[in-house]
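1st attempt posting a full record on here, be nice pls
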Amino acid sequence: MNEFYDVLQLLKKFGVIIYTGNKRQDSIVMESEVKELYDHQFIDKQTYLQALLVLRREINKNDVR
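the predicted structure (as tokens):
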């Protein structure tokens, strides 16, 4: 999992679709959803950490602009 799209697809597998029209806000909400999936043991630690890395990179990329 290396791209924002990959995280979108991961969430989509669990029926979670997020679109606010603001990519930064989407990333923040997605981070929360990924944490919920991990907390409830739907995804493993490796997947969780990779998704967080991608999302935080996206949040930081949008903060710089």
